[in-house]
Write a structure and sequence with these properties.
The complex is a heterodimer of chains A (318) and B (131). Chain A is an alpha/beta fold. Chain A has a single domain, classed as Rossmann fold, CATH 3.40.50.970. Chain A is built from 11 helices and 8 strands. Chain B folds into 2 domains: 43 residues, no CATH class; 78 residues, Alpha-Beta Plaits (2-Layer Sandwich). Chain B is 12% helix and 15% strand. In chain B, the strands form 2 sheets. In chain B, strands 1-4 form a two-stranded antiparallel ribbon. Chain B has a two-stranded antiparallel sheet with strand order 2-3. The chains are: A alpha/beta (318), B alpha+beta (131). At the A-B interface, helix 1, helix 2 and helix 9 of A face helix 1 and helix 2 of B.
Chain lengths: 318, 131
């Protein structure tokens, strides 16, 4: 195993040489590239990457340009995970046969996917990778909507959100189904490591990514990625939205080891009401009408219940 | 079309980011890399911008929040010091200004046509807040 890169503070982190380039076509203020940069800069090792179809893929590989300074595979909607798993399997086979040209190098295998590619379309493939326990990391850039194709709902879209296929109006409050508990499902694969991260907590993120790289076996990471276009907020407020998401506990930051041991890694000093998180986004605007106000109360109850559940799981260590 | 083996590529199926090989990319700064025309580093999105960040180094404490939260790799930091903004790749989102903790801020957004020196000369003074 190679050494883990030492990152004590942000100044030390800032000496990293980026392996992701600007002039990609992601929207101004997109959180995807912030997450990608934090992940790529967390290691000095070689990287073998893939991205499932989604904003990240189509915006960073517009022919004749690529924004990646590492081996990167352009692949279909569903199989970003298996492309990397295949590369990992090949690497392992060549290593066993002693046919690696530079055996001292220890590449890391990472696949990126949006929530559409992960929660819906590539779900079976990811489940397969986790079940076979490939030595790879799968990272979901969870913006809770199919942002690349114009904002259709995905199974990650939360209740009350107005998406183009679940528009809010006079007879509907938007999405009616609750968000899929992907972390729970992935933890149930009993993979060595699963974690939920947020770009605003960069240190927590880097720590978890490094832990994931050091782990032998499949790693699942769910990263919240505030989408300025579909969540409908001003691009400059991306980090503010990420702060609201983590501090209101809509996206609690925790990790699951071996599918059993839960650790909460961030406890906000001041837990803010979910109402503030909802109010900051245009997609929840209609919830503040009198007839839909009960949904905000339900939101708060759901988030509180989830937080209580996580705390009890952490305490129980089972 | 000639038959290709399993480990060969058709022309155009693979883009090379660098001329020749760079052995240690993670240890090579951007200015020392030999990018090809295929890297988006050689492209520019400067024409997307309506507002631009202006950097005033007098107030900067080199905290690097702007560096880590910049989505477009446009904050140039070398040896733990913030040097400036990469205007070819900046899309003018304004995140760097929002996350800047100094008072007054060391990065502010101005219209694309604004003159940098004039704006730095008339930089706002410390905001004491509403007390």
């Amino acid at each position: 195993m190679s050494e883990i890169k030492k990152i004590k503070n942000l100044k030390e982190f800032s000496t990293s040489a980026d392996r992701f380039e600007g002039a990609n076509l992601l929207c101004p203020g997109c959180a995807h590239s912030i997450i990608v940069r934090e992940v790529l800069n967390a290691t000095n090792d070689d990287l073998i990457l893939a991205a499932s179809t989604g904003c990240l893929e189509v915006c960073t590989a517009v022919y004749p340009y690529t924004s990646w300074d590492a081996s990167w595979i352009h692949i279909g909607f569903e199989n970003g995970s298996t492309a990397v798993a295949g590369a990992e399997a090949m690497y392992k086979a060549l290593k066993t046969k002693g046919r690696l040209k530079q055996p001292e190098r220890t590449p890391k295998f990472v696949a990126f996917g949006g929530d559409g590619a992960s929660y819906d379309i590539g779900f079976q493939w990811i489940s397969g990778c986790m079940e076979r326990n490939h030595d790879m990391m799968y990272i979901v850039l969870d913006n809770e909507v199919y942002a690349n194709t114009g904002g259709q709902r995905s199974s990650s879209t939360p209740i009350g959100s107005s998406a183009t296929t679940t528009p809010a109006g006079s007879i509907s409050y938007g999405e009616t189904k609750n968000k899929k508990d992907m972390m729970g499902i992935m933890a149930a694969h009993h993979i060595p490591y699963a974690a939920q991260v947020s770009p605003n907590k960069w240190k927590d993120m880097v720590k978890k990514i490094q832990k994931g790289f050091a782990t032998e076996g499949a790693v699942f990471i769910n990263a919240v990625s505030p989408c300025t276009t579909e969540w409908k907020f001003d691009p400059k407020n991306t980090m503010h939205l990420a702060d609201l998401a983590t501090d209101s506990l809509v996206f609690p930051l925790y990790e699951v080891i071996d599918g059993r041991e839960y650790n909460i890694t961030y406890r906000p000093k001041n837990i803010i009401p979910v109402e503030e998180y909802l109010a900051a986004q245009g997609r929840f605007k209609h919830l503040f009408k009198d007839e839909y106000k009960y949904l905000i109360k339900e939101w708060q109850e759901r988030v509180d219940a989830n937080w209580a559940y996580l705390q009890r799981r952490e305490e129980a260590k089972v | 079309m000639a038959n290709t083996g399993w480990d060969e590529f058709e022309i155009g199926a693979m883009l090379r980011t660098f001329d020749g090989g760079i052995d240690d990319i993670a240890g090579t700064k951007q200015e020392d890399r030999s990018y090809t025309q295929n890297s988006s580093y050689t492209a520019s999105v400067a024409d997307w911008r309506l507002v631009k960040p202006v950097y005033n180094k007098d107030y900067c404490i080199d905290c690097q929040f702007c560096w880590v939260y910049c989505p477009d790799v446009s904050i140039i930091s070398r040896d733990k010091k913030m040097i400036g903004v990469d205007m070819d790749h900046c899309k003018g989102c304004g995140i760097c200004v929002e996350v800047c903790p100094t008072n007054p801020k060391s990065l502010l957004m101005f219209s694309e046509q604004a003159d940098e020196e004039t704006e730095i000369a008339s930089w706002p003074s410390k905001d004491k807040g509403e007390e």
